[in-house]
Each structure stands twice: as C-alpha cells, then as structure tokens.
Amino acid sequence: MPRPGATWSVTLEQLAQQLVNGVLIGLVYSLLAIGLTLIWGVMNVLNFAHGDFLMIGMFLSYWLYALAGVDPLFSVPINAVALFLLGVLIYRFVISKVMKGPPLAQLVVTFGVSIFLSNLAALIWTPDFRTIGHSMLTGTWDVSGIELSIPRLVTAIGSVLASLGILWFLRKTRTGKAILAVEMDREAALIMGINAERINSLSFGIGSALTGVAGAMLATYYYIYPFVGGTFGLICFCIVALGGFGSIEGAFIAGILVGVVETLGGYLLDPSYKLAIVFAMYLVTVWIRPQGLRGW
Amino acid sequence: MVGVRDITAKQMTAGGAVLALLIVLPLFCSPFAQHVMILTCLIAMCGVAWNVMGGYAGMFSFGQAAFFGIGAYTSSYLLLTFDVSPWIGLVAGGVISSLLAAAIGYPCSNLRGHYFAIASIAFAEIVRIVFTNWQMVGAAEGLTIPMLKESLAHFMFHSSKLPYYFIILAFLLLALAVCRWVSTSKMGYYFRAIKEGHEIAQVLGVDVVRYRLYAIMISAFLTSMAGTFYAQYILYIDPDSVMVLPISVQIVLVAMLGGANTVLGPVIGAAILVPLSEYSRAWLGYKGTGMDMIIYGTLITLISMYQPNGVWGAITNLKRGSK
Q1: What is the CATH classification number for the domain harbouring A177?
Q2: Residue B8 is assigned to a structural domain of this protein
Q3: How many domains does chain A have?
Q4: What is d(CA B50, CA A214) in angstroms, rounded to the nearest whole number?
Q5: What are the chain A neighbours of B130 within 8 Å (beta carbons)?
C-alpha cells in the first residue's frame, strides 16, 4: 500500500489524487443520501433497504446491458422509472401499513425488506461479482499529474446534475413545494389540503428513483453483486444524520465530506479502517451537535 | 401494566409448571432439537437484556452484537492466553462491556430516536472493524477455544448438549429476574418516564443521563454473558459470527415480536422466531440459496406490519376483550 512517501512533492500529488477520488465518490453518496433524507424528512422513516434499491438499480443496468446491449448511461431514465415504481409499491404495500404503528416497528420493517431483497437477488442472480466490460465510458484523463477516471468523473457529474434536478423540483414545482411543506410541518400541510398519503408515496418513489439513477452510473465501474447495498446503505445513514434530519443541502455537503474523509482516511491510515473512520466521524459529530451539521 | 408488583399463587403455579416442563422436556429431545432450545434461550436472554434499555428506557439499540462479541472475545482471549477460567472471563467480559457501554453511552446521552439507533449501529460496526483487523485477537480468522476436559469448572461439555442447556436456562432466568427487578423498582419507573418524555423526566428530577447509563450498562453486561456462553458452546468465534448487524437485528426482533416493555415478551418472541428460522434453515438452507433468509426477511416485514405490539400485547388485548 502506498503511504505518504519520502518527498513532499510526491505526497502532495498523491494527496491531491485521493482528494479528487474522495470528492468523486462523495458526490454519488450525496445523491443517494438526498433520496434517503427525503424519505426520512417527509415520513420520519429510516429506510434500511435504501442500499438494496441501489443494488437493484445496478442489476437492472447490468441486465439491460448484458441482454439488450443498452449502455448503462442510457439505462439511467429506465432505472429511474423502474425504481420509482418499486419505491411506490413498497410504500403502498409495506411502509404505509406500519406508519401508524409503534416507532420500533417502523425501524425494523425496512430491515425485513432489505434482507428479503438482497437474498432474493442472490437466489435469482447468484451471489457472484459482475462487472460491465465495455461501457461507453472507459479510460482516464490526465490533468497535470492527477488521473481522472472517466467513468467516475461522469458518474460524479451525473450525480450533481441529478441532485440539482431534484432540488429544482422540490423548490420550484407545486408538487415539490408540497413535499417540502409536509417535511416542515405535517399537521399544517394537512390543514392546507395537501394529500399526505400521496406525498408520502411520491417521496418514497423519488427517493428510490435516485438510487436507480446512481445505480445505473455506478454500474459503469463498480462491482455488481446482491450484497453491494449493505455498505452504501450504512454510509448513507451516517451522511443523512451528519447533514441533519431531512436537510437536502446538509446531505449534499455531508456526502462530499464523507467521501473525502473515507478516501483520505483510508489512504493515510489503513484502507480496512475506511468505514470505521466514517462511523467515528458520525459519532463525534453527533456528540458535539446532536442535530447534525445543519445550521452551521 | 402486566403483573408488576404482585405475583399471585396461580401465576406461581403456572410458572413452576412451565419451568418444570422446560427442565424435563429436553431430556427426551434429539440433539438438534436441544441445539434449537439452547439457541432459543440464548437469543431470549439477549432480547430480555435489550428490553431493559430498548423496551423500558426507550433506547432502540441496533448494536447489541458489539457487547455479545466482546463477551465472547474477552473470555476466549483470557482462556487462550492466560488460562483463565471462562467463568472469570464471563465476569470480566461483562465488566468490560458495561464500561465500554458507559463510555460510549455518556456522550450519546443526548441522542434520541433515529439518531440513537444509527449511533448504536455505527458503534457496533467500529467494534467489528477493529476486531477484524486486530492481530492480537486473531483478526479476521477469529479464535478457536481449546478443548479441555469436560466439567462445569471448564465451562465445557462434549458428551451431551444438556449441561449447556441448563446453564443457558439458568442465565435466562437470571436475566428475567434482573429485568423484573428493574421493572418493579424505582429505576424502572424512571426508565419509563425517560422513555415517555426526556425533558419532562428531567424537570421532574430524574437524573436522565445517569439512569440511561444504568439501563445501557445492565443491558451490556447481560448481553456480554450470552456472548461468553456462545463462545464456550460453539468453541469458535470470529467477528463475522458474533459481531455483525444481523445479530443485533435479531435481538431487537425477538423483543418486538414478543412484546417490548414486558418481562416475558422477548422469551415468547425467541420461542417463536428462533425455532422457525433454525428449522427453515435446516430444511431450505442446505442448498445455499438463501431461501431461509428470504423467508426470514418476509417474516420481519409481516411481523412489523401485523404484530407490531408483540404477541404478549395481543394476548393481553384478548384477555381484556373477554372480560
């Protein structure tokens, strides 16, 4: 493993490289976390199956590529629609049933969905690791000594565009404003005549659709396997909580932060401690600010 | 509240009969059935321990596997390295778990609801990652407990599973006694006050931070004991078998299924869930397809949807309805 080396120039260059890699993966985390924080904020549900939705998105892109020759980049819209529908279905038939139940049941139910989805995927598609061999996106781009992997770069840019798109939707459209209204004050929104049930299923659908978008783009370079969602899901929880309850901007910034800390920390200390560093950062932050970063 | 302070003569007789059955029944069971009963008691004990902090004090921990694992590792490490009896290791593990729980619980004492749940997962994952990389305790390869002559002092039995069963049954009864003591003592009322409303409890003069720490420490100690038992029973531990999130989730699940906030709830939950998952694994899991896990996931989802207050809650409702 390369450690900070003998001379400063080398170290700085490597650090810059790790920083870039961190930001690139961090922007994907941001997109995933925005979906999760939307669900959390609107209906106060922790979706432990979020990472598994991502996994389904990745597999969908894989099969579209393997069976129909569709490049993962073009499967973005297909994924978004498919995952939106899956999210709405799961909300209608599972989540909405526990919304009025005790808080503990709301916490546990999505664990059940997560175990079900990941093992079903393992049953149907085997637990093998797969990759998409020849996406349109390959190669690297050398910018003054820093190597930019094209698929990572495009994935990051796509994630930013999708994040901005969802922010625009929430701020500028009628439906989006209704979602934000429910997030701010459910009771008041109900009095204003907003159909909360519709907003809930819409938010769950949108949150899932974002995992589909991220999944399609991640499929261009990431390993695809049934349990890929576990780690992503846990990281997203830390990001959402770091960014602050239901805060979209908070999730966006925290996503980049986590990506950078994870990559740099893994590089400077030990790659096997990457996740531990992210979790420790979460713990330290909530000790200082129990409500997360929002408000800073 | 279900039978908080007074145990009637009728309940005594019923309890005695159930206990007698639990002692006699395994004598006539197959080794696999005995194994399932042992696991049931083990998970039930963890569920009872979870209940002290989750059910009564309202801190939904999804990180109990950390304490379970530390219990397993402490006794095994002490036995391997210093030849210390697992019984002393059991106490040592409990003390270490409680101290760690207090150290991590103190700064977390402001956290509520989802933030606490995520913090508990983060904590347990950190512990797991540290143990996976820690050479002194075998890192990812884990520890193998050395074979000793079978005896109670060695906490090791080869010819039969029955001694293990009676030990874990005794542990479970101990956990139940602790839980009942907590629920009927002043502490139990403080716990419930904290659960119902942090600020209100504080205003009424409950030292919220202190009592939350008590709940976490009691829970950690009991869970750690279960971990030591597991290590002595299976004789091999690694981070993936004693410290992973699914263990924590299963512990929460038995408490929820049986009825959180009731003394006997987790035992009922474990008695339903553990045999179900063990037998479905034995029947369906052999192909390695994960069919048993799919059923398990479905079960979790269905329980949350249709039985969120637990079986005990449903029974109580029935009783009330019939009166």
Answers
A1: 1.10.3470
A2: no
A3: 1
A4: 36
A5: 276
Q: Are A215 and A222 in contact (CB under 8 A)?
A: no
- Contact call for B252 and A280, based on CB within 8 A: no
Q: Which of B310, B321, B224 is nearest to B264 (CA)?
A: B310
Residue A31 lies in a domain: yes
Residue B196: how many other CB atoms lie within 10 Å: 10
Contact B125 A279 (CB under 8 A): yes
Q: Which residue of B has its CA nearest to A118?
A: B294
Residues of B in contact with A283 (CB under 8 A): 104, 107-108, 119, 122-123, 126
Residue found by looking up tokens 């009637």 in the block: B8
CB A222 within 8 A of CB A58: yes
Residue B179 covered by a domain:
yes
Kindly list the residues from chain A whose CB atom is less than 8 angstroms away from the CB atom of residue B294.
115-116, 119-120, 123
Q: CB atoms < 10 A from the CB of A173, how many?
A: 11
Instruction: Tell me the whole-structure pTM to 2 decimals.
Output: 0.89
Question: How many Cα neighbours within 13 Å face the side chain of A222?
Answer: 24
Residues forming a β-bridge with B50: none
Nearest chain B residue to A44 by CA distance is B114
* pLDDT tens digits, one per residue of A249-296: 889 999 999 999 999 988 888 888 888 999 998 888 888 877 666 644
